[in-house]
């Protein structure tokens, strides 16, 4: 090779190197910085104290009582515990995975029942019903059903929650054309304040069925649940990118009009800027597409998000990081994760893969439901509200949920689009106050459009906003007095909106 040729080759390599640095240098720097800053240093609470995932509801409790795994032993001991708590005038709270954010699983100075581990499962092939202990995690239920060719009908986007907790908040998911979780429940058994075990269904103890479903543990301890299930199937993923104003139109065309669409969710661009913020959407849908030989992809739970986590974390406090993440979601997600999944694969995903792990910051959720026809108007409101506040919005996911005809404290009084907001903030009272102000504005905008907000998150809504969003709340608390006249079962949610305690 001549010197001239060498110079040309070196020159070409230099140009290529500069192009690589230009294209990938800044993204690599932000991803590396996110990895460097990502740490897990949350200290364990001292004995006698509890909190939830928000880490903003720390409180002392008189006792933490773990539910025994053996059903007979558990029921006898639980009955004795409730009698003792009533005699000693100790309030009782019930917790599963503690992923609520408003003290819903905590009664200060009371007895905290820990349900996790109470997870017996039994599937009846003839009826097609799964009976499952209320303390079972969906992460345990999914593999159990997978070996039987079955899957969950409705659950959250992640499997880190308990079945009893999902019923207590009446969760919804990203399953197409489905009402909230309670719609899949045939019945459940509940131990009330007197220690009596009642079977609750739409025909037996129907009043309690509608109150305790979405009742936040205020009517008794849910022991087990009988669920309808569906077949596990192979799905093909489809993705579309379009202006956010067209979300309802595109969802109707690509999902609601598709006879094989089973699951779907949307993402909205949260990159700050007049031309970018909530201006673009990604719709991801999953359609039945059986393999020619009938096989399904093997079930595998992703334990560590690795690079996807780093890309997600790079968006904290960074406009460029948010832009980088959005570009990745638009352009390379399908290439990384593939095009075919089993239903159980999509559900077998832990929330801990992406969540905040540092001691000085926390991530907070809020969720608003708006009726069909109101999505463009809601987006206009959000574009005005969120930039006014010093808050860090990381994500908005869009889902749909059908009308709930089962519960008293219902958030879906019609077919709704659900907007799930994820904020990152310092773990300080000042940051919580800032987010409270923004959340109240979002709730007002939601209510003005005929919508409602979801109750498991921070108790930022004023009592008046709560009553406007849930006009049956008076009926709900009257039912509370009727079924638990001494107020044995309590938590932060009940104290704020039921008792009016700050």
Folded structure, characterized:
Helix content is 34%, strand content 23%. The protein is of the alpha+beta class and 502 residues long. The protein folds into 2 domains: 51-231 and 473-497, Uridine Diphospho-n-acetylenolpyruvylglucosamine Reductase, domain 3, CATH 3.30.465; 234-466, Alpha-Beta Plaits, CATH 3.30.70. Strands 15-12-14-13-17-18-16-19 form an 8-stranded antiparallel sheet, sandwiched between helices. Strand 9 and strand 10 (197-200) form a beta hairpin. The longest helix has 35 residues, at 3-37. The relative contact order is 0.13.
Named CATH architecture of the largest domain:
2-Layer Sandwich
In CATH, what is the class of the largest domain?
A: Alpha Beta
Outline the low-pLDDT stretches.
12-23
How far apart are the first and last residues' alpha carbons, in Å? 81 Å
| Annotation field: number of helices | 15
Major sheet: arrangement of strands: 15-12-14-13-17-18-16-19
Largest sheet: 8 strands, antiparallel
CATH fold naming of the largest domain? Alpha-Beta Plaits
Give the total of domains.
Answer: 2
Helix vs. strand class: alpha+beta
Kindly estimate the percentage of residues that lie in beta strands according to DSSP: 15-25%
Mean pLDDT: 92
CA-based shape: globular
Task: Write down the oligomeric state.
Answer: single chain
Mind telling me the C-alpha Rg?
A: 24 Å
